[in-house]
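Students often ask what a holo structure prediction actually looks like on paper. The answer is less mysterious than it sounds. You provide the chain, you provide the ligand, and the output is a string of discrete structure tokens encoding the 3D arrangement of the protein together with nicotinamide-adenine-dinucleotide.
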Amino acid sequence: MKKALVTGVAGFIGSHLAERLLLEGWEVLGLDCLSDYYSPQIKRANLAQLIGQPGFSWLEADLLQADLSALLEGVEWVFHLAGQPGVRGSWGSEFHSYLRNNIQATQKLLEALRSSSVQKCVYASSSSVYGRVALPMSEHSPTQPYSPYGVTKLAAEHLCLLYAQNYGLPITAVRYFTVFGPRQRPDMAFTRFLGALGAGQELNILGDGSQARDFTYVGDAVEGTLLAAHQGAAAEVYNLGGGSQTTLLEAIAILERVTNKQAHLRFTSAQQGDVNATLADSSKAQTQLGWKPHTSLEKGLELHAEWQARQSLQSLQRLTPNPRPPLGDSRRGRRVLLYSHDTFGLGHLRRNLAIAEHLLQRDPPFSVQLLTGSPVAESWPMPRGLKVQALPPVVKVGAEAYTSLDPSLSFAAVKAQRETLILNALADYEPDIFLVDHAPAGMKGELLDALELIRRQMPATRTVLGMRDIIDRPETVRSLWQEQGIYGLLETGYDQILAYGNRHLFDVVKAYQLSPALAAKVRYCGYIARTLSEPLEPNLQPLVLVTAGGGGDGYVLLEGYLQALEQRAVAAHSILVPGPFMPEENLRVLEQAAARHPQVEFIPYTTELTRLLNRADLVVAMAGYNTTAEILAARKPAILVPRAAPRAEQRLRATLLGELGLAWVVQPEEDLASRLAELLPAALAGARPTGGWNTIELGGVHRVGEVLEELVHTSAVEVL
Ligand code: NAD
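The corresponding structure tokens follow.
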């Protein structure tokens, strides 16, 4: 086994080079002082890839203090990558570390090489030795460094070449051009940009972003370094540049593509010492070393971004400071994190609160946290003991289209913030169960990282999807799930699927054509509905509740109801609740129209909908999941007026209940006002829909509690 010494082995490029040498069968001795220019933790993580590999050993030592002659014994090749990088830091008081680690350390190594039998030494020089010369930069271009860093790299390079010339030492220098890829230093642009993109923060651009660089993928730089050891002539320098020029703004556009995230740029003043452009003429390396870069900027950035995403997941897991509750705590093993994306209406929030309320009241109680994107969460009454983490709200504006509720923030920025909050909640709370409402991948895939974190790092956490039975036309759901890879996600990302419905009414396994493996995960829970246990005072006269749920598109229903009252007077008091999301102009029109009817009360916003519904003698409502479930649970006569679009969900639900004789239904094509005028007197005269309530399972929250109970029990056994 031939032996190579790599100085700076814990650094970005050094760790890749050592890995490659080991692959090629070399014995590698690494040396690094783990300087604190950036976190030594990161350097240790780089080393962790190497430690334990056969043939690898390393020494934590400073080149200027180590016994280099002893270290060089038996070494055939030396790769000298240790140094103090960074243009910015080289101005001012830190210059001494550039002098020390770049020039003095190199000089000491060169002296040691004089009395060694080393056959080749490759020095890691830099494009910074050129400064602002004409492009492309060739080895014949003048060297006019534009930063103190460049000056020290050039001085060290000169030292290498003059030791080669004076003492016949086999030393070759390679000049790297802005190297990137996995493990890139945290002070370098792409790592910083990817970090900011991941955290939804602004990208800080020094200058106007027009500065151009010849970016080189780390694998290509390593390849060129090895070829220089094999073929490079002594006292020669070789450019190793990716071969194309890209501005910072162009590179950011690529980062946006590969991360699927939108960048928000903040421009600050340009950096002293930053040259406008670099571009390598690497023809000498091509002809004399046989080197050619293989990895395009786009491909390299994909690899870089993938690595960085994995890093952030791992560091989140390392950052879990919250100890588990002590053994005697009855909530041990009973933590549930609920996710409710809440991008339209009130349905998700209401369903999750019904579940949370029950879980908190079970004996022994679960500990429950709720992640909700609902803009009304703050004013909505929350069950006691529920911890709520608000996600910045987004609003659904069309099929698969969303926008931020805060106009100063882009959708991409909000999504990134939400992703980070979700990951942090998982890492801090370490739930035993992560119960996701309705959207398996979360809003626009915002849960994918979270599910991955759980899969890789949180083996004790069980993932559960809670889905309402009817989502849309089955064929529409199936093709959307195919397109979005939801079937695969359900296979790999979820332990259990809770169907919030009744199998004999709507079979989700059949409707969505779930595979046998997925079907085995499904548990039917019955409908989830909040029920009231306390008695209600009797009404003095019949009461009709007209509710449009969240109210986003409820205008038609309320307007139709008021018109019906004009066609046919009814002997009842009516309460109209438009809902918190009804557009302001609709609200005003309805309020004025309602004021013309003395028997009509108009309540723009209430959190007491369940109570009102339980008081009512007749409910006129759209056919959203929660309202319908509460109507069924309270066994109220109801007239359902489903919306027609964008989903067929309400129409399917209302039609089903109409066919079962559990509600009267006015379909979207019918003349709403006259149909209501027809139905209202009969409904108020005591006529009831004809169906049997007893066939419907409505105790969904209890069933959910039982299933979660079973899950924590089995997971506790497995973890033991
Ligand atoms: P890095 O900082 O990640 O690695 C350098 C390593 O050298 C560090 O781990 C540091 O602890 C170690 N070191 C510093 N002084 C030392 C000393 N006195 N004794 C022992 N170890 C010491 O940097 P990098 O980006 O991997 O760069 C490696 C080399 O390539 C550097 O010499 C740098 O100047 C040169 N270079 C890098 C780039 C680039 O784009 N990354 C471009 C041109 C040149």
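The two ends are 45 Å apart (CA to CA).
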